[in-house]
Amino acid sequence: RVIGSTQVDVQSDIKVRGICSDYDRVPLLGSLVRSIAADRYRSSSPLARRIQQNQVRSGVSREVESRVQEQLDLTADLYSQRLAEPLGVLRLDPTVVDMQTTADRLIARYRVAGDWQLAAFTPRPRAPSTSLMSVQVHQSAINNTLETILPAGELTSIAEMTEQIRTLFEIDDAMTIDDEDGSQDLAESTRVQFAPTRPLTVEIEDDVLWVTLRVVRLSRADGLDLRRFIIRAGFVAEFDGKGARLVREGHLRISGPGMSMRDRLPLRAIFNKVFSPSRTIPLMPARLAEQPAFEGLAVIQAELRDGWIGLAIGHPHDRMAPATNASERVAERWSED
Q1: Is residue 218 a contact partner of residue 254, using CB atoms and an 8 Å limit?
Q2: Using CB atoms within 10 A of its CB, is residue 262 exposed (0-12), middle (13-18) or buried (19+)?
Q3: Rounded to whole angstroms, how far apart are CA atoms 157 and 140?
Q4: What is the pTM of this model?
Q5: Distance CA 160, CA 208 (A)
Q6: Which helix (H) or strand (E) holds 138?
């Protein structure tokens, strides 16, 4: 975490406002002394200017480098604490694929995957040229994380699973389970055993993010015990002002071998609370939106396309028009299936 040399351009000018001496009242001698002093000034001013500029340049460079280094250290520690270390625990190695600077932008590309996992293979969505910051995340990075983070092979309550994820990534409020509709009791009493492979996956296509849960067993204290089924839900992106979120659209799809309508009803009731249409998934961290540097800015892009989530921040008048047919595509997909 060492920065390069700082380039400081200093321009200065030295002027004599007046010359006085102890001989000013002495005729002829006073003017001679002032003339000698003026000649000495003219001969030494270039050297004095260079010394002054070097001192200013050195002082400003040290101050800038010190402050930048301090902020880089804080950012690096935060990155390590909030992202690199949790991903390391999950055996996901965030590897730099490309990092470069241009006249206008700092560009960084990371691969988040274990040695045995796939990464992105489609071109990422382009952010608006007027954006000040943009992020593109491929579904493979999300799926690689979910594959290692979700417990498999054992029954775990939804509340325990949520708490483990919150603890691992130090999430404060993004996954809070409210109890207005009984979701907290449901999360504590419902136990789930996920499939050993691809337990929870996301697929992004046609402006829709599809979430698929593969469950081996689900049980509850009231005697409910169901085996081997798949739950699928569709989400679309919405953004306005400083916020961006995923909102559920359409009905849940539930499938499984030999699953009757009687079995589907309790599952639909349970997962309509897990994937509640009233509980959105934030794409923009609240702490980022609250930063002073975000004042006067807004989310101008929240796009789901070809396996990618694209998010961009800029000035409100540069806002991209969101997809208008995402809901219709969700409905069409259900009718096709």
Answers
A1: no
A2: exposed
A3: 26
A4: 0.67
A5: 29
A6: strand 133-138
Phi, psi of 199 (to 5 degrees): -65, -40
Contacts 24+ apart (CB under 8 A), 73-80: 73/1, 76/1
CA–CA separation, 232 vs 215, rounded Å?
Answer: 11
One pLDDT digit (tens) per residue for the chain, 337 residues: 556 677 778 877 777 778 888 877 878 787 887 888 888 878 888 887 888 888 888 888 888 888 888 888 888 887 777 777 777 776 777 788 888 888 888 888 888 777 767 777 778 888 888 899 999 999 988 888 888 777 767 788 877 777 766 665 555 544 444 545 555 666 677 888 888 888 889 999 889 999 998 999 988 878 888 999 999 999 999 998 889 999 999 889 999 988 888 888 888 888 888 888 888 888 888 788 888 888 999 999 999 999 999 999 999 988 887 654 555 555 555 444 4
Q: Which residue matches tokens 């921040």?
A: 313
Round the CA-based radius of gyration of the chain to a whole number and report it: 31
Long-range residue pairs from 47-53, CB within 8 A, at least 24 positions apart, any chain: 48/14, 49/12, 49/13, 49/14, 52/12, 52/14, 53/10, 53/11, 53/12
Residues 165, 213: Cα–Cα separation, whole Å? 17
